[in-house]
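Onboarding guide, step 5: your first structure request.
Type a short instruction followed by the sequence, for example:

Predict the 3D structure of this protein.
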Amino acid sequence: MSGQLIEQIVNGVILGAIYALMGAGLTLIYGTMRVLNFAYGEFYMLGGYAFLLLTSAAGMPWPLALVLAAVLVFAFAAVTAAGVVQPLLARPGWDFSTIAATLGISIALQNAALAIWGERFQSVPYMVDGTLEVAGLHIPYQRLLIVAAAAVLIAGSAAILSFTRFGRAVRATAQDREAARVLGVPADRTSILAFAFGSALAALAGMILAPIYAVSPWMGVPLALKAFAVVVLGGLGSFRGAVVAGLLLGIVEAVGVALTSSEWREAIAFAVLIAVIWVRPWGLYGVERSVR
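The system replies with structure tokens like these:
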């Protein structure tokens, strides 16, 4: 195996970790609300800018900036869900209304970022310096931090969903919203918190990836598209499926680029998506539903 291919596999794991984190957050939102959140990429973008402001402008240590920025995005997302998205769910035609609303939020946030920070890319300092040399490969510690942080966040989210009262409420709401209400689960509040939690995961992905790719008003668009692909590939509403699909997509995409060229990156990623849903329309971990 050539050194270039090994390097691309490593890059694929790094990219896959971000895809998995983004997909997990989007799955959490869709699972509880059944809403296609087209503003999801902008919460990723807000995380990047919030982290930039707190570290560069305010001089805050990056671990504290990560936590505070995530809390700020969580609060903003909760207000957005409670004030815009949740009220639409009680109206006829809510599925199209929420698509229009989240698209509007996406455009508004992009234009707000453009007006405040301009269109140029802004660099974010590395959180950790130095490189690790393994078998002739030089891997920056920042990239290793991305994988480690994504793994901790995904594992922590899985633990919250499995062992906490909030997690039980999320699972009950995702399974049957009306039945959950009958059993005393506050489905509306749970959905709002799940929306905010998933958006905070996107923001954290934006923060840990910002030192590699910099920040801009449109940085969330390509990642949001990949997150949607991951959710479909893993199976709608499947947290485990989103994680597995994210890692798979990142590795396949990176290896495909190594064997062809970077121009084929997007084509390879979505070709994998099409191939999987052609064979398994319900996704890798989705539940097959019969059509009558």
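Each response can be followed by summary notes, for example: The chain has a mean pLDDT of 92.
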